[in-house]
Design a protein that fits this description.
Elements lengths: L2 H12 L7 H11 L16 E12 L8 E7 L2 E7 L1 H13 L2 E11 L2 E11 L14
Parallel strand pairs: 3-5
Antiparallel strand pairs: 1-2, 1-4, 2-3, 4-5
Length: about 140
Amino acid sequence: MTALEETAADYATTSLTTGPHVMTHLRARLRAEGVIATHELAHVRDGGTVRVAGHVIVRQRPGTAKGMCFLTLEDESGTANAFLTPPTYERWRVLLNTSPLVEVAGRVEHREGVTHVRVASLRRLDAVAELPEGHNYW
């Protein structure tokens, strides 16, 4: 098995891996497309436009948040916080709720020591495209 196949098999059987993070296998392609790693968000100026991607480990839409949706994305370098306003959430709701791996594009906000990405758009990441035909773990 390739390294990606091993990671995919780990996720398929145990829903986690002790090997390389799935994003490790996608990083070279993403970097070539201008997508940064989560740890790089701290170096983006407030208000800067950014693309960041990861495995969605948290999706929250608390009743007290006036329709806001909050995400936590995880990649091989750490986690990133992102949020969607109600109109943006409605536009991307299906993709967001059916995709374990996503790329978000939006503006960086640094507030009180916390960095968030205000999401303008989403893109489904397809790790399956990197696997040999017949394998479908994500």
